[in-house]
Each structure stands twice: as C-alpha cells, then as structure tokens.
Amino acid sequence: MRDFTSLLFSKRLLWLQILIALTLGVVIGLVLSPKGAALLDQQDAEQVAQWVALPGKLFLALIQMVVIPLVMSSIILGIAGNQDTRFLKRVGLRIFPYFVVTTIISVSIGVLIVSLFNPGFYVESQLLTNLGVSMAATPSEPLAAMSIPERVASMIPANFTQSTLDKDMFAVVMYAGFIGVALTTLVVKQKLLLLDLTQAVQSLSLKIVNWAMHLAPFAVFGLLCDITIRIGIDALVGVSAYVGTVIVGLLVLLFVYLSLVCLIARLNPWTFIKSIKDAQLLAFSTSSSAAVMPLSMQIAEHRLGVKKPIVQFIVPLGATINMDGTALYQVIAALFLTQVFGIHLSNSQVVLLMLTTVGASIGSPSTPGVGIVILASVLASFGILPSGIALILGVDRILDMCRTTLNVTGDLTACVVMNRWLPVRD
User: Fold this and answer.
1) Is pTM beyond 0.85 here?
2) What is the DSSP string of 126-189?
3) How many helices (H) and strands (E) would you count in the chain?
4) Which of 182, 269, 275, 337 could connect to 303 by a Cys-Cys bridge, CB 3.0–4.6 Å?
5) In terms of pLDDT, which residue wins out, 104 or 342?
6) Quick check: 312 and 411 in contact, CB under 8 A?
C-alpha cells in the first residue's frame, strides 16, 4: 500500500494526480454549489470557494513571481548560448511566419465553424433579459486605432521597468531578444561571463518552479472546485450552442496540430499526445500558459527530444505570441455576438475582424481571464455591443481552460516542427 501511495504521488504520475484533482474539484464543486446540489447557500458557498481556491492562487503567484526572469533567461540563452551563429537567422525566418500562419488558420477555422453552426440563432431573448443585455442598445463607437507607425514604434519597450510592472510579456520578449542578439556580438570573455549569470538566473527560477509543482494537484483541485461552486451548470445551459461551437473549433485546431506533427515532424500523433498530457492537463486546470511554460520546456526537451536551444527560444516566445486557441475563441465569440444582436458583417468586415483578432492575440498576456479583456477591445473596434460580453462571461473560464490547452499544445507542436526544420549542434 505504501509503495502504491508513493508511486501515485511521485512527479512521474503528475498527469494522474492532476486528472484526479480535476475530477474531484468538479464533483465536489457541483455538490457544494447553490446552482448544483445546493449543499451550501450562496453566502457560505462564496466563503468556501475563496478558501478552496487558495492553493491555486498560491501556485499561480509562485509561477508568476519567476515567469519574467525565466522567460528572459530562456530566450537569451536560446539566442546567445547556441554555438551555431546561423541558428538565429534560420529560426527567425521560420518561427515567426509559422506562428502567423497557424494563427491565420485558427481564425479561419473559427469563421467556418460559426458559419456552419450559427450558434447565435439559438439564444433565447429571455436569457438576454435575465442578464440585463439590451437588444436595442446603441453600438459603441469604435476605439481610435493606432496608426501603423505608432504600432511599430510601440513594439520596442521604451521603459522596461514599466513593462515589467504591467506584465507586458511581449515587451519582455522583445527586450530579451535584443539582449540575446547583442550578446552574440561581444568578445568571448564578456559573453561567457554574462551567459553564466543568465544560466544561474534560469536555474534559480526553475528551482522555484520545481517547488511550485508540488502544489500543482492541490492547485488544480482548488481552482476547478472554486469555479464550479460559483457558476454551477446554469451558465452552461443557456449558451450551450456557443460553448459547443468553440469546443468543436478547438478540436479541429487540434487535428491541424496533429497533422503537422505527423506530416512535418514525422512523429506519431498518439505518442505526441501521451508525451504532452501533463502540460495539457495543467494548462486546462490553471488557464495560464505562463504557469505551464516550465513544464512545457521540460517535456519538449526530455520527452519529445527537441534540441535545447530550440526549446529555450520557442517555448517562452510561443507562450507570448502563439495564441492560436485564444484567436479562434475571439473570432467565434465576436461572430456569435453579431448573430445574437442581428448585426450583419460584410465579407470585407469579416476579413478585417480576422486580421484584428490575429493582431490582438499576438503578445496577449499568458494569464487567466485575459481573453475576455482582449475580446472587449476587438468588439469595441467594430462597434459591436460590449454589453453582450455579459452573455458569455459565465462560461468564459471554462472556455479559457480549453483554449489555453490548445495554446500550450501549439507551442509544443511548434517545437517538434522546428526541431525537424532547424538542425542545430548541441
């Protein structure tokens, strides 16, 4: 019995621990939820939910505490630590177009799925009334868009301290990229000194992450139990067509990833899924690509056999700009709301929406709940009723978990694809 218990709680079976915690979190949450079995009333349930979510909040806080030094050190080492000086040029010419193309594919899938299922036509007017959403509301004025030169200039982090305080991960990635490129031009003595320091920062960050991973199953249980207590199952019923449409779109995107794994990376898709299941379950539970990034790096290098320079460069970069699942969700949500409110978009407007979604998803923070914030800005830029967000807010956390899982899967897919395309010396 002792051997079984020690095996169950070993880090080798993290996927099983997370799966058990996930199941228990949902079941116990439904039992306690006033919108489920109603074992507790509303006030008591809210108090219990706060305490149950505490391990999850501690876990996310530990990860977020080291995510910036980990991202910076990983990208710097990925660029400057590689002995093959041509690697930087090759990876830049391949990975950035790859990310853009897969994001365009994801939003195209979203448009096709919405056109096929028309989920907005299944929403009853009574549900809008209950949520206080007015069908007669006047669309908001589009936000003033930045000019292209302003957008290009804003990509350079003028104030790194402010970017850190704002958790602007795209700015952090850009800053680390500049440092990595600059390091490649230094003399060997200076370069080795700074690389040793950067390696030490990465090792310290990973040590803290290793401590945090012991909390992962408890964090999963707490976060899932918390959200289940709060929303119950009522929120799912009214917009089930919308939820189903997003999930179908994400499954199609998963099929695209597995096709890339099979056709380009020449890996067995089933073996690939089994290798990354720990990262997928943790992503589903935490809704944070940043929280999963250290585990994704470990899986890519040790289970998928991806070269270390590729892992160090692509996984942190992908966690910041490779948000295919988020992009697919945003375009489906936007088109869903246009159907609900009877707003007709021309073909050119749909294309513009797709391009806006691609741009908005790149560089979005890899933290829970950020998708709904980005969606609000996308809706406002097209004059779509922002009050409609209330319609999908109740199920956003569940869909956030699903799309984060696909975001992480996309990062690991990029790793194995680039490992095939970019042979590097160890």
Assistant:
1) no
2) HHHHHTT--TTPPPPPPPPPPPHHHHHHHTS-S-HHHHHHTT-HHHHHHHHHHHHHHHTTS-HH
3) 21, 0
4) 275
5) 104
6) no
**How far is CA 199 from its chain centroid?**
26
Contact indicator for 381, 374 with CB cutoff of 8 Å: no
What phi and psi values does residue 344 have, to the nearest 5 degrees?
A: -95, 125
> What's the CA gap between 210 and 417, in Å, rounded?
27
CA distance 81 to 67: 20
CA torsion, points 195, 200, 204, 205, in degrees to nearest 10? 0
**Structure confidence by residue, pLDDT tens digits, 237-278:** 657 888 899 999 999 999 999 999 999 999 999 999 999 999
pLDDT higher at 41 or 339: 339
Residue given tokens 């513009």 in the structure block: 352
* Nearest one of 172, 209, 182, 220 to 363, comparing CA atoms: 172
Q: Which of 153, 337, 310, 358 is nearest to 246 (CA)?
A: 337
Number of other CB atoms surrounding residue 270 within 10 Å: 11
- What is the token pair recorded at 175? 């800053």
| In contact, 304 and 349? CB cutoff 8 Å | no
Please, are residues 411 and 322 in contact by the beta-carbon 8 Å criterion? yes
The tokens for 63 are 């990860």
- In eight-state DSSP terms, residue 191 is H
Give how far Cα 124 sits from Cα of 120, 235, 237, 389, Å. 9, 13, 11, 16
Q: What share of the chain is helix, strand, coil (3-state, %, to 5)?
A: 80, 0, 20
